[in-house]
Structure formats: C-alpha cells, structure tokens
Amino acid sequence: MKSILTKLTIALAALCQGAQAQQLYPPCDRKATVETHFLFSSMQRLQGAGALFGHHDATAYGVGWKFDKDRSDVKSVTGSYPAIYGWDLARMEHGSANDINGIPFKLQRKLIKQAYNRGGINTFCWHMDNPFNGKTAWDTTHNSAKEILPGGSAHQTYVTYLDRVAKYIRTLKGSEGEAIPLLFRPFHELTGNWFWWCRNACTPEEFKTLWRFTIDYLRNEKDLHNLLIVYSVADFDTKEDFLLRYPGDAYTDFLGFDNYCTKSVPDYQQKLGRRLALQQQIADEHHKLSCLAETGYEQIPMANWWTTVLQPELQKNNRTSYVLAWRNGRTDHYYTPYPGQVSEQDFIKFFNSQGNIFQNRLTPLAVYGKYIIQGTK
C-alpha cells in the first residue's frame, strides 16, 4: 500500500507541475464518503494542470450507433474515453425503465460503474418533469417551485420523485460495495427562462429554499453522502447575476455555467472567456471549483473550432476544473466529432494538448484514492 500511495503522489505531482499551491477545502457535505472526499481533494489539486474533458452520454450512443459495447465517439477519434461522463436522471422520478434519451437505467448503471472502475468521473443533470402539474421540465408555469416546497400542494409528489431518485443512486456502487461519487447538478441553467425552476417561474428565495430542501432531504433523510453539488447557471454578466439565486456555500461544491456556440463564433468566444474569468473569481472567494458544465458547437461545422475557439479560452482560464460537451444524439445533433467528421483532426490536436485531460491521463492519478493497475482487483 505504501508503494502504491507513493506512486500516486508522484503521478499527481508530475501532472500538477505549474499548478498553484493551494489550501484544500472539504466537500460541503461534512459526512461525505471517503471516496467522495478524496475525489474533491484530487480535483482541487488538479487545478491549473488541465481541464478534465467530458461528454454527455458518451458511452451509451453516438452518431450512427447505439448501445454498442465499449464504444464512444470520443474514443473512436482519440483512442481514449473522456474523463467526465455526463448522465441524466430524467424519467427516474416516475420509476421509468429508460431515461429521457432512451437509455435503459440498467444500462446507465452499468456504464456508470464501468466509468468509475477505469477511474473516470460521473456527473448527473436532471431534466425533471414538473411535480406541480406533470408537464415536462420545459414547462414554465409560475409558482411551480413554491407549490412543491413544504406546505405546497405538490410537495408530496416532489418527495416521491426524490425518493425514487435516491433509491436509484443507492444502487450505484463500486466493486467493494462503496457508493460511487457523483457530481450532482440539479436545477441547471437556472438563470434562463425555459425550465419550471428558472428565473421567470420562481423568485430567488423560492429557488434557494427549493435547492436547500432538496440537498438536505437527500443527505439527511436518504443518507446520500456521495454527492458533490454543482450550481450551474446559464447567462450571466455580473457577480450579482451569478449569485442572485445562490443557495449558499453549505450547499455547493462546484460553480458552473452552460454556454453554447449558437450564434457568431467571436461572440461565443468573447463571452466564454469573460464568464470563465469572472466565475473563477467567484469560486475563489467561496472556496469552490469552477467548471464549464455544458458547452459545444452543434455539428461542429468549423474544422479548427477546438484549438482556435475553445482551447484558447481554457488556456487563459487554466484553473477551470472540467468542461463537458453535450451529447451526440443524432446526425444533426452532436457536439463531439466522430470518425470522418470535419473537426476530427483538430479534436485530436485538442486531445494531445497538455492543457486537456482525458481518461488516459486521468486513470493513473487514482482520483478516488485507489490506484488502478492492470490485472489487479
């Protein structure tokens, strides 16, 4: 064990050369599991060494394939899986067999375990249907959040949703029965105006109360202590915009935002750089990690987008913990290249940059405190 820990220390030190020395802070859940605590410390140590690259539903499907074993569009292009694996809890609130994108939850569970076993990091968003009226996450009925809080007309429905999700999360265990650490990103894009929890549908105080109730319930009533909490906004221009609905340091571990390249590329790049810098400032003040929780350029029509648009902003803001590209859902809706796609060669250059960390570089770092050696348990 001592030799393994020595190897781990050397590996982390080698990757983190040039990263700023820093004080490490504990997860906001003071009862976090050993593996969860170790993951959060590891991700803090990696600040400045490179951004972990992630992809949503990376190993479940891609352009032209679905549910193939050991497959990933990222891996088909680069030879490596991503370091971060994004998933969605949507439909579990109803006890459904499949998630919102058609992945059987049994398969999702298997893929999450596989990612964890190779030393990867799993993160959940939740496009939760509206507990108040049963409509989709994209319903914007006013007062929905208020009505699912304690004392509200739909509170028990919401508690039932949480119970079902908690039951599923409890099944996500490693080979020794330990709870797999998860980055949990509820109520994302909260500064937008398209979900029932967004700024146009509830007040800042209602949102903060909902967030705190949710996290407290999962921790204290359902005894889930393997969640690192991600507070993820959409558009923001000032610190005040970002923090208006912030639930507090006791309820968050990561600060993030979603930012897609949907209009002019220069406009996206300028806003991305400015927001990453401002978010890092806020994260430092609150002792949190900063991330780009969702991004991408649909169909990636620009051949050198990865190295001339995204990479420069990540280099300028090199303490960004991770960046996650959205899913490869259809031939007209994908955010990472596949073999033969116009940006494939540029993505390989992006992959080879020392500023980006994929699974091949993450595995030796044993971010959960478990050194992974070929052929050993």
Automatic annotation (TrEMBL):
One of its GO terms (biological process) is substituted mannan metabolic process. Keywords: Carbohydrate metabolism, Glycosidase, Hydrolase, Secreted, Signal. SUPFAM superfamilies: (Trans)glycosidases (SSF51445). It is an enzyme of class 3 (hydrolase). PROSITE patterns: GH26. Residues 1-21 form the signal peptide. Gene3D superfamilies: Glycosidases. It is found in: Secreted. It catalyses: Random hydrolysis of (1->4)-beta-D-mannosidic linkages in mannans, galactomannans and glucomannans. InterPro entries: GH (IPR017853), GH26_dom (IPR022790), Glyco_hydro_26 (IPR000805), MANB/E (IPR016714). Coiled coil: none annotated. Substrate binds at H127, W194, Y260. It comes from Mucilaginibacter galii. This is Mannan endo-1,4-beta-mannosidase.
